[in-house]
Amino acid sequence: MAESVSKLRSVGEHIELDVGDDIANSPRYNEDIAPTRAEQRTWTRWNVASLWVGMAICVPTYTLGGVLTAYFGLSVSEALWTILVANVIVLIPLTLNAYPGTRYGIPCPVVLRASFGIIGSNVPSLIRAVVACGWFGVQTLFGGIAIHLLLSALFDGWASLGGTGEVLGFFIFWAANITVVIRGAESIKHLETLAAPLLLAVAIGLIVWAVPKISLLEVLATPATRPPGASFWGYFFAALTAMVGFWATLSLNIPDFSRYARSQRSQVIGQIIGLPLTMFLFAGLGVILTAASFELVGETISDPINLIGKIESPFWVVVAMFVIILATISTNTAANIVSPTNVFQNVAPKLINENKGVILTGIIGIALMSWELLKRLGWIETEVSIEGLYSNWLVGYSSLLGPIAGIMIVDYFLVKRQSFDLIALYKDNAGYPAWNMAGMIAFLVPVGLTIGAIMIGNNSWFHGFYTYGWFTGSILGGLIYYFVANSEARSAT
Questions:
Q1: DSSP string, 43-80
Q2: Which positions ≥6 away from 264 have C-beta within 8 Å?
Q3: Which of 469, 473, 479 minimizes the C-alpha distance to 410?
Q4: What Å distances lie between residue 307 and 62, 66, 160, 195, 304, CA to CA?
Q5: What are the structural domain ranges in the chain?
């Protein structure tokens, strides 16, 4: 019997793939990373906006303001403006890199096959995946603490467990996250749609509780912590890079979600509605409540979980913790599990399906957070803090992800001119090389400069390749890719 051949067809602004035996039997294909079909593209602008509300309202967002004031030397008002500007900036790569996902229905690792090669796509994909697994561990820790406080409010015996209760909460929360993602994209969509209004309600509730007890003007007037006379701009751009780095991960793997969008208009408007204002308001709430926490509860507390745990009413503690658990699940599933799950499938599609990818993500997340779990059990001692870890991590990993974002945008819009050979993306030796040297060169040069900047230290202008790594990396990576790719194309003709 003759092998059937895959065919393409246009459905409005979408390109759809009718899979034949040639692709079904390819080692680069499985059903979970296949292009989405028309009936799967159900996400409206409000679903996309809810996705961002669900991801942005989380514990790390709440603590961003404190990170900017404590680690980057900004005042409270400067920190808030930095967060707003950063999220307006990050909208650009987010909406642009979402385009191929919406048009072709393909996840991020498959998009990267066009610019890095069929095999080479695993390099940037795995870098993104490791970061996501790390964040998965951090978010699961916060979720576990919320479960511990929830159960402590209900059962006195659980409260006596202390750190052991937090570790048990970690694994309960871990199982809940894994269950949601295994149920598929529609499960995530429904969760985000349910979570968004509840999360906004909790944020409003915290404001209603706190505002009568504090002076907003005094909080906003909190001065900068940088050395007297130090230039604002150096601290600002370093902080801006870190804040852009907060969603630099999603600016790469946004096709994992935009592949379900009804149209380009839906994904663009949904992201504009959902991201910048939500991030600004919730991070601003975190800045205000952290600055005012001493007056509210008698000590400075930088995360909402422990702050809410100080409320004297068990009823409101239970309600608030339930919603925070929901908030953290909505963030964790979308931002930190979907991407590595697709990445691990891209490495070996015939060996790893979606369920196996989800479990692998979860196991790596546990491993990366094992030091903190052991510390809470009292088995080891370490001075490393969660806040310090991700304040330094934000700048570091954004330096690696910036070039990838620039390369993806330039490849799709300027080199490929919004036209992929969809069938060839799922086959070996069918139009795309195993390793695209233009992509690898454009990635390795900025990364090499970043590593060099770290080794040289702070006393050189060269250190800017690290401090402002996302900006220097994305611009330089995009420019190098454009010239190398066009040079290769001219040589081929």
A1: B-HHHHHHHHHHHHSSHHHHHHHHHHHHHS---HHHHH
A2: 13, 98, 99, 102, 103
A3: 479
A4: 12, 14, 19, 21, 5
A5: 42-392
DSSP letter at 312 equals S
Hunting for tokens 């900068």 — which residue is that?
224
How is 355-386 classified by DSSP, letter by letter?
HHHHHHHHHHHHHHTHHHHHHHTTS------H
Query: Which tens digits make up the pLDDT trace of 170-213?
Result: 999 999 999 989 988 788 888 877 777 877 777 777 777 777 77
Tokens of 450: 């970043």
pLDDT tens across 205-252, in order? 777 777 777 777 777 777 887 888 788 888 888 888 888 888 888 899
User: Please, which pLDDT band fits residue 389 given cuts at 50, 70 and 90?
Assistant: low
Alpha-carbon separation of residue 198 from 26, 136, 143, 318, 484 (angstroms): 44, 22, 16, 14, 49
Please say whether the beta carbons of 373 and 182 come within 8 A: no
Q: Rounded distance, CA 130 to CA 59, Å?
A: 20
45 versus 72: the higher-pLDDT residue is 45
Does the CA dihedral 125-127-129-131 come out positive or negative? negative
Nearest C-alpha neighbor of 468 from the set 72, 69, 132: 72
Predicted pLDDT of residue 405: 94
From CA 27, how far away is CA 192, in angstroms rounded?
33
3-state secondary structure 138-193: HHHHHHHHHHHHHHHHHCHHHHCCCHHHHHHHHHHHHHHHHHHHHCCHHHHHHHHH
DSSP result, 230-279: --HHHHHHHHHHHHHHHTHHHHHHTHHHHTTBS-HHHHHHHHHHHSHHHH
Fold topology of 42-392: Hydantoin permease (1.10.4160)
* Closest by Cα among 297, 291, 302 to 217: 291
Burial annotation 261-272 (CB, 10 A radius, 16+ → b, else e): bbbbebbbbbbb
- Give the model's pLDDT for residue 1: 57
Please report how many Cα atoms fall inside a 13 Å half-sphere around the Cα of residue 380, on the Cβ side: 9
Calpha distance 35→407 (Å, rounded): 22
pTM: 0.89
100's tokens: 């191929």
**Percent of the chain residues topping a pLDDT of 70:** 94
Structure tokens at 134: 């790390």
Higher pLDDT: 3 or 145? It is 145
* pLDDT (average), residues 112-131: 94
User: What pairing do the DSSP bridges indicate for beta strands 7-11 and 14-18?
Assistant: antiparallel
* pLDDT digit string, tens, across residues 302-356: 777 777 777 777 887 788 788 888 878 888 888 889 999 999 999 999 999 999 9
Judged against a pLDDT cut of 70, whether residue 91 lies above it is answered with yes
Element spanning 292, H or E: helix 276-297
